Amino acid sequence: MGVWQAFRMAVKSIRSNKVRSFLTMLGVIIGVGAVITAVAFAQGSTKQITDRISALGTELVQVSITGRNTNRDITLKELEEFTLENEQKIAAMSPLISSQYTVKAGRNSVDTSVKGTTYDYSKISKQDIAAGRYISDIDNEYRQKVAVIGSRVKDELFGEEDPLGKTIKMESQIFVVVGVLDELNQGQQGTSDDQVIIPITAAQRLMKNTSIRNYSFLAASAEDVDSVMDVLTEYLTGVYGSSDMFRINNAAQTLDTLSSVTDTMMTVLGGIAAISLLVGGIGIMNIMLVSVTERTREIGIRKAIGAKRRNILAQFLIEALIVTGIGGMIGLLLGTSAIWLIGKIGIVPAVYSPLWMILAFGISLLVGVVFGMFPANKASRLNPITALRHE
């Protein structure tokens, strides 16, 4: 019996038991689909974060004050003086405090990130103004309640109306919209399009928080980053007496850390994939063992008319490969559909990984071979006389 004939017999057997064949495939379908979707979600999340960090450039240096139990705290004025002293190396410095708020305008409202900062944040964030103006040093000096809003906030609160000069409400405080930011991320939630920027002096009152724990520095060039980090470390160590009281990171370090986290995540996902496909393989083996028992008499007849052991083995192995192959293809379709849906909704960018798709499909075929071997071997070893007597 040739391979083509064995293939035709396997297909006929699968078609004669459609429900059982589908249930056999189900474990592989779920396993392959879950692997592709999970990997795409992880890669999409990584891409989203990486794009945001990369957009800021490798010249960005971020400082976080971590020490809490200290009688000494750095002030914004001191860091402004430090920046002036090192203006050849530092192009800009801005403080940042942020929190989530429900922002209202008339009957409309939106939950968004509210950031308190200074004018230099416009240079650091590299997000231009689409309409109006940015917050100014005068706004901070006189604690003006003005706001610059992202495109998503603008669309949610004002729709097609011009928001400039209109008011928004946060908690019980009223702010006047003086600017709208350029749209960078198709107005997606959780991106730079989904934020409200206000003067840091107004933010301290709004958030009831006078302590500033985060500062961003923009090095004059990529070559100055290490030098800026060194002088910052020396200066802050002199202020606090210990380097344990603060953290200094740049974009390149953050990307390296993110890459390490992503690699760990992918390893975990690979383990989950292996377990899900293992469960699917066990299901295939169990169903095929039942199939061998049901078709014992058929196997006996085939052996009696001259079918060899390798013919029976080939038929059942091909049957297992067809089941897992079809299951893998359906899983691929479901997985890619889920990726498209995730990207369409805007949860994370849609990222299709051909390598993982091929790997998941290949593993599904391998599962068919490994877990189909035992029932196929059992069928091929049946004694024809005993098989013919089977009822």
Task: Compile the SSE list and pairings.
Blueprint: H1 3-16, H2 18-56, E1 60-65, H3 76-85, E2 90-105, E3 108-117, H4 121-125, E4 129-132, H5 137-141, E5 146-149, H6 151-158, E6 167-170, E7 173-181, E8 195-199, H7 200-206, E9 214-219, H8 225-240, E10 246-250, H9 251-294, H10 296-304, H11 309-345, H12 354-380, H13 384-389
Parallel strand pairs: 3-8, 5-7
Antiparallel strand pairs: 1-9, 1-10, 2-3, 2-6, 2-9, 4-7, 5-8, 6-7
Helix pairs in contact: 1-11, 2-9, 2-11, 2-12, 9-12, 11-12
List keywords for this structure.
6-stranded mixed β-barrel, 391 residues, 2 domains, 18% strand
Give a written overview of the molecule.
With 391 residues, this protein is an alpha+beta fold. It folds into two domains: 3-52 and 257-389, no CATH class; 58-250, no CATH class. The protein is built from 13 helices and ten strands. A six-stranded mixed β-barrel has the order 2-3-8-5-7-6. A hairpin with a 2-residue loop joins strand 2 and strand 3. Helix 11 runs antiparallel to helix 12 (354-380). The chain is elongated and about 100 Å long.
